[in-house]
Amino acid sequence: MTAEQALGRALRRPRYEIIPMRGALEAARALPAHAVVTVTCSPTRGIDATVELAAQVAALGHVAVPHLAARRFASRSHLETGMSRLTEAGVRDVFVVGGDGDHVAGPFDHGCRLIEALAEIAPGLRSVGVPCYPEGHALIAAETLDEALDAKCFLAGHMVTQLCFDAARIRDWLQGVRGRGVDLPMHVGIPGVIERRRLLGIALRIGLGDSTRFLRGNKRMWGRLTGPSQFTPDALLDDLAPLLAAPELNVAGLHINTFNQVGSTEAWRRKRLSALASTAGDVDASGSPSSAAPDGRA
């Protein structure tokens, strides 16, 4: 498979991420039918808002994947109540994060503890995803991140990268984790279409130091990010395409952070698919995602 063909396949069935805030359900309605839609956990709105929005997204016919932040659950009973609501709504897939911040609301101080509890509380779950950090984490030591991912690879079904604008950094990091035996399928986190300066603010806030330094040294990408109007991830995708086509890296697909800007992101995705179809004969330009498991494998 060529890089263009791999990119076309990934764009036909990406994962979409939305934020639980006003207008989020309307954003989900604008997505293609039966899309995989992940729902983040807002530090201000709390885990219950994530659970409720995920249930509503599932009712639209999407594959809803709530982000369950371990530190946000006040008790095991709180987790059981949330999982009961999700099960009733037909949600069978979750994404487990630790939850930033020093405050731990209950018994789950990190993601592994929550995943272990889920195995007992919700044994019928189809897929558990976990985050990964090619550029590290602003608040967590690299050694701690490595140890956590090594432990989670026996408990989870796939991993998703934090936003990173440096495809070479993602490749080098992924080769390293593959070399030490972490074989989870990986989805690459990319931004959707968003106002450029807002995206730069997000990148700086979540600690993408190396990525922003890379951008400053890459005039093409830096200009795209700091100029007027909106950012589109075309240049980043061009750099990522060879990774998508490399079977030994096991890159399952793309995870689009929409920031709830679904309309503009979907218009861009379909346009990019159409452009790929004109250069790669077997790329489907319909833009409709095929039926796939939440880990991205057909």
Automatic annotation (TrEMBL):
GO biological process: what's one of them?
Answer: tetrahydrofolate interconversion
**GO molecular-function annotation terms?**
FAD binding; methylenetetrahydrofolate reductase (NADH) activity
In terms of SUPFAM superfamilies, this protein maps to:
FAD-linked oxidoreductase
The record's catalysed reaction(s) read: (6S)-5-methyl-5,6,7,8-tetrahydrofolate + NAD(+) = (6R)-5,10-methylene-5,6,7,8-tetrahydrofolate + NADH + H(+)
Give one Pfam family, short name only.
Answer: MTHFR
- Region Disordered, as annotated, extends over 278-298
Q: Which GO terms describe its cellular component?
A: cytosol
List, separated by semicolons, the cofactors it needs: FAD
Top-level taxonomic group: Bacteria
Alphabetically ordered keywords of this record: FAD, Flavoprotein, Oxidoreductase
Q: Pathway involvement?
A: One-carbon metabolism; tetrahydrofolate interconversion; Amino-acid biosynthesis; L-methionine biosynthesis via de novo pathway
Q: Where is the composition biased (Low complexity)?
A: 280-298
UniProt similarity note: Belongs to the methylenetetrahydrofolate reductase family.
Q: What is this protein called?
A: Methylenetetrahydrofolate reductase
